[in-house]
Write a structure and sequence with these properties.
The complex is a heterodimer of chains A (about 350) and B (about 300).
Chain A lengths: L1 H14 L1 H21 L10 E7 L5 H10 L3 E5 L3 H9 L6 E4 L6 E3 L6 H19 L29 H13 L2 H15 L1 H7 L4 H31 L7 H25 L3 H18 L11 H6 L4 H14 L9 H21 L5
Parallel strand pairs in A: 1-2, 1-3
Antiparallel strand pairs in A: 3-4
Helix pairs in contact in A: 1-9, 2-6, 2-9, 3-5, 6-9, 6-13, 7-9, 7-10, 7-11, 9-10, 10-13, 10-14, 13-14
Chain B lengths: L5 E10 L2 E11 L4 E5 L6 H8 L7 E6 L2 E2 L4 H6 L1 E4 L11 H11 L4 H15 L14 H11 L7 E5 L7 H16 L3 E5 L3 H7 L2 E6 L2 E6 L1 H8 L4 E6 L2 H11 L3 E6 L2 E6 L4 H9 L3 E7 L4 H9 L8
Parallel strand pairs in B: 3-8, 3-9, 6-7, 7-8
Antiparallel strand pairs in B: 1-2, 1-4, 4-5, 9-10, 11-13, 11-14, 12-13
Helix pairs in contact in B: 3-4, 4-5, 5-6, 8-11, 9-10
Classes of the chains: A mainly alpha (about 350), B alpha/beta (about 300).
The structure holds adenosine-5'-triphosphate (ATP) and magnesium ion.
The site of adenosine-5'-triphosphate has 11 residues of chain B, from helix 1.
Chain lengths: ~350, ~300
């Protein structure tokens, strides 16, 4: 009977162009658009070019040498100070250094850029100049600071691409949209009267619920597999951690999404209301959870709010699996547990509110 | 004696403060066709829904073929086929896909399912278009597939809730003939409709439902003999206000249904007090016509309503 329900619901979904587009096509479009908007880390392997001009007889050559020796940067010497300024203004270079024969070195950088973007470059270049101009040879000094990853965090993989972020972000955002499909399916069954037929049939009422929920759970899993599959095949998304962790997380995400859909169906409302209010709710949850803009870049307050929605937990788990080498199922256990807790909460509320007869 | 095909005892349903169905007692004999007649909102659908396990009754019991619905829902429901009032079909799917799903709900699979689908499609005459999406069907064809979906498991008892509503005469005849055939082959049928002539032609027995209660049961002939016969139709002339007063006055002396300037009256005693009351109210009687004894006049006498002018 469940198998027949799966066959029926899949056939219905295949006839529903709107649902197919919003579950399978739209996320791909979003992955591409967002993927090309954020280029963070996209070129992290290559050192960034810094424009430099220096007057003869000054400390310029020393600065260029120090800059070339600094990981992540290389110097590009231009013909004039104005060339350096023009290059920075045109964003050909993230910053430039203009070194006169004596006196203050000019750091050419867009002071209007957000401090998160500008700060590291500014700090690094100031350090370069200081080291080059120091009266003693600082490179001969013993190191004062050592960077170490704390235990408990696996080291991130090399060559993180933006798709490493936009694929899971949109997979979670649109994965939760299956909730809308579930809620609409219940409303549609009630509207047409097929729900009556189901209740009149010799199947327990619990089976009547499962007959609507299980097919969409399977569709949800298929959707996530499709999105991560395309992410890997077409956008070079890599899985640094274990595949098993990715699978278990995805099973939990779909379960949570279908439970949310059941809760939405139990709360009720017409198909129109669901389409309007429901999709806004899902979008806001997605935003808070960091699906569009990663929570890592949010202020602390917003970061914690993101853990109030399942999306935030799902993404924490996915980022760990995709980016940190050696991530196992146990490493993402907090995310999985949180997703299952949300699923239980949604399903429990849904069961309390759901009316078989209206 | 074998158990009744359907037996309702004290069956009732409240929605909040409103009682949709009071406490119905009804026995449907095996093999009969019982017509369920009643004006809009009388409680027909609610009664049928309780009998088929779709709605949980507030009070009373249901037994289908001797199996109590509350005690063994699976066993009871297996004996019953429901054709809901609305088109309970997935219009995006083909007739075949629909029937395959609904058949599976009754535990049918494999060759049995395929055979039953072919049979049901044959019964409703839709075999050649079974692969098409239902939304491309005509209104009448949709009604026929709605009927087929209730037949797949060859139920002992078939309950049809207004199966011919909003259907062209040709399809109506088809559905009507189909039900008659099924009944002739031994299937017990409960048939709800607003069309008096369908009930007269099809049903052995009629139960008239009004305001959540069964107000009369019997054969068509019995109901006519007991409740109809003395009906008259008064065509009135005069101001609308006078006709209003006349209708109210006549109601004191019999059952009255009003259709514009025409009053259909089944007098409680003689006709004379009715006429006197109407004239006293200031309305002029343009024409008096005695109405033939029919199920319709019995219905009017029992419910004070005409069936057809129901919206
Ligand atoms: N789910 C419900 N909630 C509240 N009231 C209801 C519900 N279903 C039915 N009712 C009320 O119960 C009464 C009987 O309704 P029902 O649908 O059984 O009538 P019916 O005889 O089938 O009418 P019709 O000929 O229009 O189909 C009506 O007053 C209706 O408003
Ligand atoms: Mg009804």
């Amino acid at each position: 009977m469940i198998a027949a329900a799966v066959t029926k619901d899949v056939a219905l979904l295949l006839r529903d162009r709107g649902a197919l587009i919003s579950l399978f096509l739209l996320p791909i479009v979003f992955i591409v658009v967002f993927g090309s908007m954020f280029r963070f880390g996209g070129d992290s392997g290559k050192p960034r070019p810094i424009a430099v001009w220096y007057a003869a007889g000054g400390p310029g050559e020393k600065i260029v040498k120090t800059l070339d020796a600094t990981p992540g940067f290389r110097a590009e010497v231009l013909a004039s100070a104005d060339d350096v300024r023009a290059g920075v203004a045109k964003e050909t270079y993230p910053a430039g250094l203009i070194v006169p024969a004596r006196g203050l070195v000019e750091l050419s950088i867009d002071l209007g850029a957000p401090v998160q973007v500008r700060g590291p470059v500014e700090g690094a270049l100031t350090g370069v100049v200081m080291r080059a101009l120091a009266p003693v040879d600082l490179s001969a000094m013993p190191p004062l600071v050592e960077a170490v990853t704390p235990p408990g965090i696996a080291s991130p993989m090399k060559n993180i691409s933006s798709f490493q972020v936009t694929v899971p972000g949109n997979a979670v955002l649109f994965g939760f949209f299956i909730a809308l499909t579930v809620a609409m399916a219940f409303t549609g069954e009630r509207r047409t009267g097929t729900w009556r037929r189901l209740l009149a049939a010799p199947v327990p009422r619990s089976h009547a619920l499962l007959a609507t929920l299980i097919p969409y759970y399977l569709v949800g899993i298929t959707q996530l597999a499709f999105l991560f599959g395309i992410g890997a095949a077409a956008f070079g998304m890599q899985v640094a951690g274990s595949l098993a962790a990715l699978v278990v997380l995805s099973l939990a995400v779909s379960l949570c999404a279908v439970s949310l859909g059941f809760l939405m169906a139990a709360i009720g409302g017409s198909e129109k209301q669901l389409g309007g209010i429901g999709s806004v709710v899902l979008l806001v949850m997605g935003m808070l959870g960091g699906c569009m803009f990663p929570r890592a870049f949010m202020p602390q307050f917003m970061k914690s709010i993101g853990l109030g929605v399942p999306h935030g937990w799902a993404l924490d788990g996915y980022y760990a699996v995709l980016v940190r080498e050696g991530t196992t199922v146990a490493d993402v256990a907090p995310s999985i547990a949180a997703l299952l807790a949300f699923a239980a909460l949604f399903a429990g509320l849904g069961l309390a509110l759901f009316r078989f007869e209206r | 004696m074998t158990a009744a095909a359907l037996s309702l005892r004290g069956l009732g349903k409240d929605y909040g403060a409103r009682t949709a169905v009071g406490a119905i007692d009804l026995d449907v004999v095996r093999g009969e066709c019982l017509g369920l007649l009643g004006p809009n909102g009388a409680g027909k659908t609610t009664t049928i829904s309780m009998a088929s396990g779709v709605v949980t009754p507030t009070r009373g019991t249901v037994a289908i073929g001797g199996v109590e619905l509350a005690r063994d829902p699976r066993g009871a429901k297996q004996k019953l086929g429901l054709v809901p009032q609305e088109l309970a079909i997935y219009e995006e799917l083909s007739a075949l896909q629909n029937l395959a799903y609904f058949g599976a709900l009754y535990g049918l699979a494999g060759k049995t399912l395929a055979d039953r689908i072919a049979w049901a499609l044959g019964v409703v005459g839709l075999r050649d278009r079974a692969g098409e999406q239902v939304k491309r069907y005509s209104g009448g064809m949709k009604r026929r597939i709605n009927l087929a979906a209730g037949l797949l498991h060859e139920p002992e008892l078939l309950i049809l809730d207004e199966p011919t509503v909003g259907v062209d005469p040709q399809s109506r005849n088809h559905i009507f003939e189909t039900v008659r055939d099924l009944n002739a082959r031994g299937m017990t049928v409960i048939y709800t409709t607003h069309y008096m002539e369908e009930v007269e032609a099809l049903c052995d027995r009629v139960a008239i439902v009004d305001a959540g209660a069964i107000v009369a049961t019997g054969t068509v002939a019995e109901l006519i003999a007991a409740h109809a016969g003395k009906g008259v139709e008064l065509e009135l002339a005069g101001e609308p206000a006078a006709i209003d007063r006349a209708a109210a006055a006549a109601a004191a002396h019999g059952t009255v249904a009003r259709d514009g300037g025409t009053l259909r009256v089944v007098p409680a005693g003689g006709l004379a007090p009715v006429i006197a009351a109407v004239e006293e109210a200031g309305a002029a009687i343009a024409r008096i016509q005695s109405r033939q004894a029919s199920l319709e006049s019995a219905f009017l006498a029992l419910t004070g309503k005409t069936l057809r002018d129901a919206p």
